[in-house]
Design a protein that fits this description.
481 residues; alpha/beta; Arc Repressor Mutant, subunit A; Rossmann fold; 8-stranded mixed β-sheet; 3-stranded antiparallel β-sheet; 21 helices; globular; protein dimerization activity; transferase
Length: 481
């Protein structure tokens, strides 16, 4: 059978048009803000839009721009040129790890207009010539700026790596233990025992670290270094949540369409960061927050009295501890909200208060445990209850799948239908799950399969741009089991 590749005729002007139109949309959004312009990379002053929730239109325009720019570059350049540049990208994480380890952004804050490499290296305690070469590579990728020969300063991107920003902690996780582990992925896949294993103690991270237990056990304090990395990771998850705008679900799902007095149970909700936002945005909702005992005590006695005392005063919030693998949540609620990273609740609850609900829960667990969690949730459902799983939902990269009725709205042609580089973070995270935990992100079909095996029927995918909400109802045909 002869396979005819898709024609690239006309792709270049089409991609350029997508870039031009997306840029106009982005500029229009900025023109309506308090600072009506797109800031320069040299501007280290936060822009008002940096801390506001990104609108769906702006988010899509940025994703189209990122995807189209990357696809255009890959289309017009010689393929060997592009591939050589791609494989040499291994040096960027290493350089970032250096500047994070030695707190280079913090030092540069002392002289906003620029610091000579000799002074900078002296303050950091590392070799002048080597540090200069590292910073020049990063400046060439728009992280830091070289204001004059051998004089460097922070820019709009590098200030995100200040040690006071939790994003720097998650950056350390990815450039340290994660980056070391991914280099051994091929070795693990070639191993006759480990290659097919889904065991949490047979990962590339295990091979890299030399630790024989799970990443969770290590982070919980199996060694002093493990405790240090675990605390750093816990702090970093705050930066992660801010960067991915996990709270987009507040506006992306029609909570306002629920009946007045409807009950929402946030299962594995940590201290209830998202639940607090729901309480403030939708005061007619009655909320239940469930997590491990320490987090519930902290939420009830420290966080909510300060952040949302009106919900406590009006008795709109109930706090109750739960072991989600062993017991069902509070019965009879209208909505059970399940967020990602629930597995990390067990890990981080003793390290740092976090925002975790049945959102980003399922990706840390193998399928068997996911089904167990959802079956426990199902036991609590009344006939018209909904279950909302807030997760990354992977889309395929082929246009035929998209045209065949994908639940996602595909990106405009000739972009890859899953937006390519515009939504690459979820595919990076999928590999992170493989390397560190032997787990995975899932496609919609995989979520539907898990739901059906748990006695749940798929209703709808709510596409939030970065993540998605998979809605289920109780499958009456499955009985009450």
């Amino acid at each position: 059978m002869t396979i005819t590749p898709s024609s690239s005729n006309g792709q270049v002007p089409a991609l350029v048009a997508l870039i031009t139109n997306a840029a106009k949309v982005i500029e229009a959004h900025y023109s309506k803000s308090a600072k009506p312009f797109v800031p320069s990379l040299d501007d280290v002053t936060p822009h008002p839009l940096d801390s506001e929730m990104t609108s769906p239109g702006l988010r899509e325009a940025v994703q189209i721009l990122e995807g189209a720019c990357a696809q255009l570059s890959a289309t017009v350049a010689r393929p060997n040129h592009t591939m050589l540049n791609r494989v040499m990208q291994i040096y960027e994480p290493g350089c970032l790890h250096v500047v994070l380890t030695f707190k280079i952004p913090d030092i540069l804050q002392e002289k906003p207009l620029g610091m000579h490499i000799s002074e900078l290296s002296s303050k950091a305690g590392i070799n002048e010539g080597k540090l200069g070469r590292i910073l020049r590579l990063l400046a060439s990728k728009h992280i830091f700026r070289e204001v004059s020969k051998d004089v460097f300063a922070n820019n709009r991107l590098s200030v995100q790596l200040l040690s006071s920003n939790p994003l720097s902690s998650i950056a350390m996780h990815f450039t340290d233990e994660n980056n070391k582990a991914v280099t051994l992925l091929a070795d693990v896949l070639a191993d006759p025992d480990w290659g097919d294993s889904l065991a949490v103690e047979k990962t590339a991270w295990n091979k890299s670290s030399g630790y024989s237990g799970s990443l969770f056990r290590f982070f919980e304090g199996a060694t002093p270094e493990g405790a240090k990395q675990g605390a750093r990771f816990g702090l970093g998850m705050m930066g992660w949540g801010n960067a991915i705008e996990a709270n987009a679900v507040i506006n992306g799902f029609p909570w306002g369409g629920l009946a007045p007095g409807a009950t929402v149970c946030d299962v594995g909700g940590g201290i209830g960061h998202i639940t607090i936002q729901l309480a403030k945005a939708y005061p007619e909702l009655r909320l239940k927050l469930q997590d491990l005992p320490d987090r519930i005590v902290q939420a009830e006695t420290e966080v909510w009295p300060k952040e949302c005392p009106e919900a406590i005063a009006n008795q709109r919030i109930e706090f109750k501890a739960i072991d989600f693998l062993a017991e069902p949540p509070i019965e009879g609620c209208d909505v059970y909200y399940v967020r990602a990273f629930l597995n990390l609740t067990r890990l981080i609850y003793s390290l740092l208060a976090r925002t975790i609900q049945l959102k980003n829960i399922m990706h840390d667990w193998p399928t068997k445990e996911c089904i167990q969690i959802l079956r426990n949730v199902r036991k609590a459902l009344k006939p018209d209850s909904r279950v909302l799983i807030h997760e990354y939902v992977l889309a395929h990269a082929d246009r035929k799948s998209a045209d065949a009725g994908s639940a996602f709205t595909p990106a405009p042609e000739p972009l890859l239908p899953n937006y390519g580089v515009g939504r690459i973070r979820q595919y990076n995270l999928d590999l992170d799950m493989m390397v560190m935990l032997n787990s995975k992100e899932r496609t919609l079909d995989e979520f539907i399969d898990i739901g059906e095996k748990s006695g749940l029927s798929f209703v709808k995918l709510w596409d939030l741009g970065e993540m998605g909400v998979v809605e289920f109802r109780r499958d009456c045909a499955d009985g009450d089991n």
